[in-house]
Amino acid sequence: MGEETDTTKKCLFVKQKAVDTLNEKLNALYIYRDHYFEKHSLDKAGQKNGDVENEMKNTLNLFENLKERAEQENRAMYLYLKGRALNVMPHHSKEAEEVLSRAVKLDPKLVEAWNELGECYWKKDDIEEAKNCFSGALLHARNKVSLRNLSMILRQEKAASNKQRSENIEQGVAYAKEAVQLDANDGTSWAVLGNAYLSSFFTISQNPRTLKSCMSAYQQAEKDVVARSNPDLHYNKAIALKYEEEYELALESFSRAQALDPTWDAPQQKEKQLVKYLNNVQDLATHKGKLKGKKLQQLVQSIDFKQLGPYSGGSYTARNETIKLEHVPLKNLQPGINLEKVILGKVVCSVHDDDAVPFTFCLIDKEETCVAVTVYNLAQGKGVIIGDSVAIPEPYLAKICFKYKQKEWNFVSLRVESPVLLVVNGRKVGRDQQASARLSTFKKTD
Q1: How many CA atoms lie within 13 A of 384 on its CB side?
Q2: Of 118, 169, 283, 418, whose CB is crowded by the most CB atoms within 10 A?
Q3: Whole-angstrom distance, CA of residue 97 vs CA of residue 131
């Protein structure tokens, strides 16, 4: 009797082991993919997908060998595990979609299968079906994967109005926050939260605290080796850094994204665009818009302090109080915000940027000091032209000085958060010229 009991136990163990064995093999496949750069140098990045595909094929061989036993144990689970194995690659797999669809039909409460099926639909750009899968999974259990995926989808979904767009962004932030609360050690969730904050900053309100929260989330994400190995994190972080005018860090982040995935063109393109932009800014600021001597002198001589307009009275209203203003030449400005100061100059050129944000031009004052000016939140089609006089209260000055890949930049820039702060040709700029910035990001996984 004892021998029969032991034999029965061994049979039960063998039967249970099929699904467990496949699950272990599947976990090893994803560890191989997500931790690839712990065992491989960055110069192997180009062969990562090929290596992962080979591992996937080896894994699927085991699935075929154990199919009969695993299906007897739990067919829905077997189909889910196989679908997840097929879904390890970045492109859409028709077979994965078919297998996962069968899994959720067999067990509609299998949350992991719903999430994986949602990923499948997403990879073939069927956003609506992907959303249905993630939303359906949440009906069965609150989980970080569904929450962060819905956060990403809400940022991609077409909105019928600006109001709906803002509501989607706000809901996306809420979903991402909940995902982080469920697992504060998951770097992928932190990265998604950072992207949600970044979208909120550009779409809803250009509140510096929102951007600070965005950068903080990215820093948390980078503590996780899986998230840190994702090129998307570094790419979107670079976008945020560019907006902060932390150009050196932005270029380094674009370069990191490119190194992690050499097949992805966007980081390299953005890096080249930023280098070109910085070259143009420095060249035009150094050579005073490249205006001919006579034209330049005419502009400088035409600067009239009456063009300070409402700022000529020595004060303006800001921060719910009356601020005294003293006109100073550009050369007297200090790095950072120059409280209670106002500057006046003439536009000598605008600087082309492949991104819509910021609007950049060069300004020269009476003493022929020339600086770059970056204006954010400017409505499309608005701006200033050569010869316009521009006054800026309490200007924020940054000295751009760094080297990157044998290139060197050294120029001064004034940052203006909103065009309504400007006085152009003696008049305050109207609120009709203010608009939300347009976010330039690229999504692979977000």
Answers
A1: 32
A2: 118
A3: 15
